[in-house]
Amino acid sequence: MDENIWLVAGLGNPGPGYVGHRHNVGQMALAELADRMSATFKTHKTNSLVAEGRLFPGGPRLVLAKPNTFMNLSGGPVAALVKFYSADASRLIVVHDELDIPFDTVRLKLGGGHGGHNGIRDIVSAIGTPDFIRVRVGIGRPQGRQPAADFVLHDFAAAERSALPVLLGDAADAVELVTREGLTAAQQKFHSPA
After folding, report:
1. Which domains, and CATH codes, for the chain?
2. Which residues are listed under the site Discriminates between blocked and unblocked aminoacyl-tRNA (predicted)?
3. Taking Cα atoms as reference points, which of 171, 190, 13, 193 lies closest to residue 93?
Protein backbone atom coordinates (compact mmCIF):
# COMPACT_ATOMS: atom_id res chain seq x y z
CA MET A 1 0.00 0.00 0.00
CA ASP A 2 1.33 3.43 -0.98
CA GLU A 3 1.08 5.75 2.03
CA ASN A 4 2.00 8.76 -0.11
CA ILE A 5 -1.04 8.64 -2.37
CA TRP A 6 -4.63 9.81 -1.98
CA LEU A 7 -7.47 8.74 -4.25
CA VAL A 8 -10.05 11.50 -4.60
CA ALA A 9 -13.27 10.50 -6.35
CA GLY A 10 -15.69 13.21 -7.43
CA LEU A 11 -19.20 11.90 -7.98
CA GLY A 12 -21.61 12.95 -10.71
CA ASN A 13 -23.23 11.81 -13.93
CA PRO A 14 -21.33 11.54 -17.23
CA GLY A 15 -21.96 13.57 -20.35
CA PRO A 16 -22.40 17.25 -21.19
CA GLY A 17 -26.12 17.26 -20.33
CA TYR A 18 -25.34 16.80 -16.62
CA VAL A 19 -22.31 19.06 -16.18
CA GLY A 20 -24.02 21.91 -14.30
CA HIS A 21 -26.41 19.81 -12.21
CA ARG A 22 -26.35 19.88 -8.42
CA HIS A 23 -25.65 16.13 -8.49
CA ASN A 24 -22.34 16.86 -10.26
CA VAL A 25 -20.88 19.20 -7.65
CA GLY A 26 -18.33 16.51 -6.66
CA GLN A 27 -16.94 16.47 -10.19
CA MET A 28 -16.97 20.28 -10.28
CA ALA A 29 -14.81 20.33 -7.14
CA LEU A 30 -12.35 17.92 -8.78
CA ALA A 31 -12.04 20.29 -11.76
CA GLU A 32 -10.99 22.99 -9.26
CA LEU A 33 -8.39 20.64 -7.73
CA ALA A 34 -7.05 19.68 -11.17
CA ASP A 35 -6.66 23.39 -12.01
CA ARG A 36 -4.68 23.92 -8.80
CA MET A 37 -2.36 21.04 -9.77
CA SER A 38 -2.19 22.07 -13.45
CA ALA A 39 -3.28 18.51 -14.20
CA THR A 40 -5.42 17.27 -17.08
CA PHE A 41 -8.03 14.54 -16.93
CA LYS A 42 -7.33 11.55 -19.18
CA THR A 43 -9.24 8.36 -19.88
CA HIS A 44 -8.18 5.57 -17.51
CA LYS A 45 -8.73 1.82 -17.69
CA THR A 46 -10.77 1.94 -14.46
CA ASN A 47 -13.69 3.48 -16.41
CA SER A 48 -12.82 6.90 -15.02
CA LEU A 49 -11.26 10.15 -16.09
CA VAL A 50 -8.10 10.56 -14.00
CA ALA A 51 -5.75 13.47 -13.31
CA GLU A 52 -2.64 13.12 -11.14
CA GLY A 53 -0.37 15.57 -9.41
CA ARG A 54 0.55 17.28 -6.14
CA LEU A 55 -1.14 20.24 -4.50
CA PHE A 56 1.96 21.46 -2.71
CA PRO A 57 5.73 20.75 -2.84
CA GLY A 58 6.61 17.54 -1.03
CA GLY A 59 2.94 16.72 -0.66
CA PRO A 60 1.35 13.37 -1.39
CA ARG A 61 0.39 12.35 -4.92
CA LEU A 62 -3.29 12.92 -5.60
CA VAL A 63 -5.21 10.79 -8.05
CA LEU A 64 -8.37 12.69 -8.97
CA ALA A 65 -11.01 10.45 -10.52
CA LYS A 66 -14.38 11.13 -12.14
CA PRO A 67 -16.20 7.82 -12.69
CA ASN A 68 -17.62 7.50 -16.22
CA THR A 69 -20.71 5.74 -14.87
CA PHE A 70 -23.94 7.25 -13.66
CA MET A 71 -23.96 8.29 -10.00
CA ASN A 72 -25.79 5.18 -8.77
CA LEU A 73 -23.06 2.95 -10.29
CA SER A 74 -20.03 4.82 -8.90
CA GLY A 75 -18.81 1.79 -6.93
CA GLY A 76 -17.34 -0.19 -9.84
CA PRO A 77 -14.91 2.51 -11.01
CA VAL A 78 -13.98 3.49 -7.44
CA ALA A 79 -13.27 -0.14 -6.48
CA ALA A 80 -11.20 -0.51 -9.68
CA LEU A 81 -9.18 2.60 -8.74
CA VAL A 82 -8.54 1.31 -5.20
CA LYS A 83 -7.29 -1.96 -6.69
CA PHE A 84 -5.27 -0.38 -9.53
CA TYR A 85 -3.41 1.97 -7.18
CA SER A 86 -3.12 -0.63 -4.37
CA ALA A 87 -4.70 1.91 -2.05
CA ASP A 88 -6.46 1.30 1.23
CA ALA A 89 -9.96 2.70 1.85
CA SER A 90 -8.36 4.95 4.48
CA ARG A 91 -6.64 6.79 1.58
CA LEU A 92 -9.90 7.37 -0.31
CA ILE A 93 -11.75 10.70 -0.28
CA VAL A 94 -15.15 10.87 -1.98
CA VAL A 95 -16.51 14.33 -2.84
CA HIS A 96 -20.29 14.36 -3.31
CA ASP A 97 -23.46 16.43 -3.13
CA GLU A 98 -25.44 16.36 0.10
CA LEU A 99 -29.13 17.29 0.36
CA ASP A 100 -29.11 17.36 4.16
CA ILE A 101 -26.52 20.15 4.37
CA PRO A 102 -27.43 23.75 3.50
CA PHE A 103 -26.16 25.12 0.21
CA ASP A 104 -22.76 26.82 0.47
CA THR A 105 -21.63 24.52 3.32
CA VAL A 106 -18.95 21.80 3.36
CA ARG A 107 -18.81 19.02 5.94
CA LEU A 108 -16.42 16.09 6.31
CA LYS A 109 -16.79 12.71 7.91
CA LEU A 110 -15.18 9.29 8.06
CA GLY A 111 -17.42 6.29 7.51
CA GLY A 112 -21.01 6.05 8.62
CA GLY A 113 -24.12 5.29 6.62
CA HIS A 114 -24.95 6.37 3.09
CA GLY A 115 -27.77 8.70 4.15
CA GLY A 116 -29.85 7.68 1.13
CA HIS A 117 -27.11 8.74 -1.31
CA ASN A 118 -27.05 6.00 -3.96
CA GLY A 119 -23.54 6.84 -5.16
CA ILE A 120 -22.15 6.37 -1.63
CA ARG A 121 -24.26 3.23 -1.16
CA ASP A 122 -22.77 1.71 -4.32
CA ILE A 123 -19.19 2.58 -3.32
CA VAL A 124 -19.64 1.01 0.15
CA SER A 125 -21.01 -2.13 -1.50
CA ALA A 126 -18.23 -2.30 -4.11
CA ILE A 127 -15.23 -1.71 -1.84
CA GLY A 128 -16.69 -3.63 1.11
CA THR A 129 -16.35 -0.91 3.75
CA PRO A 130 -17.91 2.43 4.65
CA ASP A 131 -14.64 3.59 6.22
CA PHE A 132 -13.51 6.25 3.77
CA ILE A 133 -13.52 10.04 4.05
CA ARG A 134 -16.46 11.93 2.57
CA VAL A 135 -16.32 15.61 1.65
CA ARG A 136 -20.02 16.45 1.65
CA VAL A 137 -20.88 19.51 -0.42
CA GLY A 138 -24.18 21.01 0.71
CA ILE A 139 -26.79 21.61 -1.98
CA GLY A 140 -29.75 22.03 0.39
CA ARG A 141 -33.22 20.60 -0.04
CA PRO A 142 -35.74 21.64 -2.67
CA GLN A 143 -38.38 24.22 -1.75
CA GLY A 144 -42.01 23.17 -1.74
CA ARG A 145 -42.95 19.79 -3.13
CA GLN A 146 -40.25 19.26 -5.74
CA PRO A 147 -38.97 15.67 -5.43
CA ALA A 148 -35.32 15.44 -4.32
CA ALA A 149 -34.49 13.21 -7.32
CA ASP A 150 -35.72 15.95 -9.65
CA PHE A 151 -33.96 18.71 -7.68
CA VAL A 152 -30.49 17.14 -7.90
CA LEU A 153 -30.80 16.74 -11.67
CA HIS A 154 -31.19 20.47 -12.29
CA ASP A 155 -28.65 23.25 -12.63
CA PHE A 156 -27.99 25.53 -9.70
CA ALA A 157 -30.30 28.54 -9.44
CA ALA A 158 -28.92 31.93 -10.53
CA ALA A 159 -28.30 33.09 -6.94
CA GLU A 160 -26.53 29.81 -6.17
CA ARG A 161 -24.38 30.02 -9.31
CA SER A 162 -22.88 33.31 -8.14
CA ALA A 163 -21.79 31.64 -4.87
CA LEU A 164 -20.75 28.35 -6.51
CA PRO A 165 -17.06 29.25 -7.12
CA VAL A 166 -16.61 29.87 -3.39
CA LEU A 167 -18.33 26.58 -2.50
CA LEU A 168 -16.17 24.63 -4.97
CA GLY A 169 -13.08 26.38 -3.59
CA ASP A 170 -14.10 25.36 -0.07
CA ALA A 171 -14.57 21.73 -1.17
CA ALA A 172 -11.13 21.76 -2.82
CA ASP A 173 -9.62 23.38 0.30
CA ALA A 174 -11.20 20.64 2.42
CA VAL A 175 -9.56 17.92 0.30
CA GLU A 176 -6.20 19.72 0.44
CA LEU A 177 -6.40 20.14 4.21
CA VAL A 178 -7.17 16.44 4.70
CA THR A 179 -4.09 15.50 2.65
CA ARG A 180 -1.91 18.12 4.36
CA GLU A 181 -2.97 17.99 8.02
CA GLY A 182 -5.51 15.17 8.38
CA LEU A 183 -9.27 14.82 8.75
CA THR A 184 -9.51 16.32 12.24
CA ALA A 185 -7.84 19.57 11.18
CA ALA A 186 -10.14 19.83 8.17
CA GLN A 187 -13.21 19.19 10.31
CA GLN A 188 -12.13 21.83 12.81
CA LYS A 189 -11.85 24.39 10.02
CA PHE A 190 -15.05 23.59 8.17
CA HIS A 191 -17.29 22.66 11.12
CA SER A 192 -16.46 25.71 13.26
CA PRO A 193 -18.84 28.66 13.27
CA ALA A 194 -17.50 31.40 11.00
Report:
1. 5-191 (3.40.50.1470)
2. 13
3. 171
